[in-house]
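Crash report, auto-generated. Payload:
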Amino acid sequence: MKTLYLLVPLAPLAGAILAGFFSSILGRAGAHTVTSIGVAISFILSVLIFQDVQAGHVFNGAVYTWMESGGLKLEVGFLIDQLTVLMMLVVTFVSLMVHIYTIGYMAHDEENWPSGSKAGTNSYQRFFSYISLFTFSMLMLVMSNNFVQLFFGWEAVGLVSYLLIGFWSVRETAIYANLKAFLVNRVGDFGFLLGIGLVAAYAGSLDYAQVFAKRNELAALTEVVTGWPLITAICICLFIGAMGKSAQFPLHVWLPDSMEGPTPISALIHAATMVTAGIFMVSRMSPLFELSDTALSFVIVIGAITTLSMALIAIVQTDVKRVVAYSTLSQLGYMTMALGASAYSVAIFHLMTHAFFKAVLFLGAGSVIIAMHHEQDMRKMGGLRKYMPITYATMLIGAIANAGLPPFAGFFSKDSIIEAVHLAQVPGAHFAYYCALAAVFVGGLYSFRLIFFTFHGEERFRHGHDDHGHGHDAAHDAHDDHGHHGPVEPHESPKVVTLPLILLAIPAIASGWLIGTILYGNWFGNAITIAGVHKGMATMAEEFHGIFGMMAHGVTTLPFWLALSGAATAWYLYIARPDLPAVIKQKLAFPAMILEEKYGFDRFNDWFFAGGARLIGRGLWKGGDQMLIDGVMVNGSAGAVGWISGLVRLFQTGRIYQYAFWMIFGVFGLMTLWMSRV
Amino acid sequence: MNSQLLSLAIWVPILGAVPVFAAGSERRCLVRWLALAVAIAGFLVTLPLYTRFDVTQAGMQFVEQAPWITRFNVQYLLGVDGISMPFILLNSFITVMVVLAGWEVIEEKQAQYMGAFLVMSGLMNGIFSALDGVLFYVFFEASLIPMYIIIGVWGGPNRVYAAIKFFLYTLLGSLLMLVALIWLFLESGGSFNILEWHRMPIAMGPQILIFIAFLVSFAVKVPMWPVHTWLPDAHVEAPTGGSVVLAAIALKLGAYGFVRFSLPIVPDASHYLAPLMIALSLTAVVYIGFVALVQADMKKLIAYSSISHMGFVTLGFFIFNAIGVEGALVQMISHGFISAAMFLCVGVMYDRMHSRMIADYGGVVHTMPKFAGLFVFFAMANSGLPATSGFVGEFMVILGAIKANFWMGFAAATTLILGAAYTLWMIKRVVFGAVANDHVAALEDINGREFLVLGLLAACVLAMGLYPFPFTEVMHASVDNLLKHVAVVKLQ
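Recovered output after restart:
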């Protein structure tokens, strides 16, 4: 079985290596075939391993010893349990769909590169190599049985994300976004590494099982130097890592900009898998987080702020991908809230349903973007549903699921989160509950705004391209080379694009129906630990009476009506009275500006952190290195030597009478001294 | 174990340099191949040091002993333990890289150029294996001469200033070391044997003075903040090969001095002054990190990055736990690969564009995709990405630092952000973006020789990141022994 486990990450890695290093030999078809086969092998094996775990075979073992030092044995190894295997299924399935989709999406990628660019020659193959490399990294992350490998996967997915956001490296916005993404993630990783360091220092091991076995001893300790309760310090540090990777407020700023990358990776990396790594990690660490209510409280508040604040921004976005990006941020906030409410299984459940419906939304958005010839501004779309029926249908499914309406997948997971937050007792849970409720309304609004704005109403793309000021300038630039300036005639995307959409739309509808099995049947077993005092999940299990019971109950509760009224508002504003949004925006100019400025985070970060760091650097360089050290100390000591020798030189005039004078002067002085002594 | 392996490691390159010099610079082809043959031979003779190394043994291995200056009891005494052995291999390997890197790039006085590097390689091996104080000092000082010449002859426009600054800075430092060595000779009753000094009890007052004497000498070499300012100047003016050896090997000499001299000879002073050392190290990590951020010259940026990374080395030594010390040693080796590769990368671009300024570049990926891939890889390693060697050392030192004191770990871990910021910001401006100008548009991708050099280094960086076990394995016994030794008070 161990060989099979090993094969799961190595198959995509092999694909990535082949497609990356032998791109000219393999050609395009060869590259997408080997990578897709690699991921397909991974997926099939994941299904087999899933069945094996269902049969009760949990595995925890090492592959090789990475390093040993100071009594700390660090191994590369796998922990295959219910949590892992669920993640493996989601990752490999979505990845496979994205691989197929990419064949269509990137088919004309050479158009995105300036002529003569040698980096553009094999860009198609390289893209496949990267997404397979990503799949490998993500699998290493979720399959790890220790913190070091977790951190490896954590950083490796970050690397691939960096490479892919900046894939179209000729675009200034893209290479700004990927640097930003990497650095903001590094801020999170900074905390994450400190957390890992604390674990290593106090538990003497970085193996999950060994650390968790010592958790009660750890809970009794305080950090020696800082005096903080140890387990709270560890959990908050680890969670800062999750805030970076899972884009939680205030480290969310990189995710919207990551939309500069090609759409398939927005779906795979920045919606379905990588950004959920933080959620997965905290769930994996549930034995630790359960021991600190302070940490859980921190988690739930951060999640709540993210959920609501990001959903609000989604309302004012006009770029189709950015709406989906902010929606992703908001949904990640929901998952984080669930973690804070000790409902780890619910968070993972929402992670799964979200992976499907958000992948649909992103890939659908990509399909629209292809049809619109790389136009991403929704103000230049409208009425697309009759041209792109499959894309429309699947995106509608995704939007309904995203809004959380029954019987779609999102309903079950999101409703459970709201219920879990409602039942949570940690400080901040009330605040989180109201944020969640408000965000349900906003979620309904932006989801359906997206649909109505893009697929219904007037066919605004027929107006022609007269305002180049907005939207996606870079895409335009790259695109202008082969001119599509007149009105475009949209058409449905090819089958390689629509097939993944359909295959993902199915679980976007149906995966929620597994709620009984996954959440309430003790399906996760020992993979997730919940402390006895956190009774939310137990209460929910008692109240659960099948999916139909849940739906029947759901339509009588507030979240359902809030989501529905959000959808109705969207209908009123964008179908019934399309003139109203402009009026509202004018009346509410100030709040609208705050949202369009995204609360000013980007501006502040650029000014304070990026500008501040450069200022400090320049100050230390000019003031410290050049003035103080070189100027005063180095050249100063050289100068002092010169000054003293200059002084001494005054006496070395070479004039005999001066020497004689000083001699007599000296003799006179000495004699005076001698005589006065007597 | 009686063998002449260490003597071979020292004298093969030095004696091999003689025919290289003799061949004369007119016969460039012959000179190159001869130099390469000597460098490879020099590397091959060091391989048995690893394969025959006994990892269970803490003490010196491959010991060679012969009287040298009997009047002062000076001996030709060589030996390596798990701490010094890896550096001999690293040095001999880097020498091969340097010879390859200077292949067709150096047009003037190629015989002297290659010869100087070969001589220096032998001298460096001498430093890492000398167990006699005078022998060490001779090698230590002698290694300055070829480096001084390399910067002064093949360097940039401001090379004379840089060479003299380099020479004076390091020479002034080592004079104090000589005083300390003579004091130890007298105090030990007439012995220059370093291992005997390790065992010799010394009172606290002299311990502190000796520590400071060594500190001044080694801190300049590392270089530690605030005696680091010679390094950026030296790097900027040095030819690529000079920068490579300077960063990969010469900087390690100071750090090696700390573990071979300061810690074991004056352990109590080391403990007493550890807070100072830690403060200087952390200043190097953070302060220099910020300074690196604003550099406009790539070589300066990488030079500052080196100083910051070497801060991890001194930090690791002075937190006195196994993972910290081993992490520091791993960091030294890893930095040898990565900084060498980074300087080679800049060299590759400099050879084509004759500029090191970031502002002159942009969009290199479009004309040199193979090179760009390798450059980005090394940049990631420089930012400490896991699965590269850059991660291993930093990770271990940070773990060790957190174990010692949370706030120390906190300050050290800022490198995660700063290191990525200055390295990747440079990458963004140099490698990515649209093609900046006609010069960039005319760039040719790396040739087979350049690809070989960078590829070999990339393989080392990756191998060490994926499987650092063999590296730490050879260190365990010696490091444990060192820490046990350092923990015992040896006051008089």
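Post-recovery validation: The first helix of chain B runs from residue 5 to 23.
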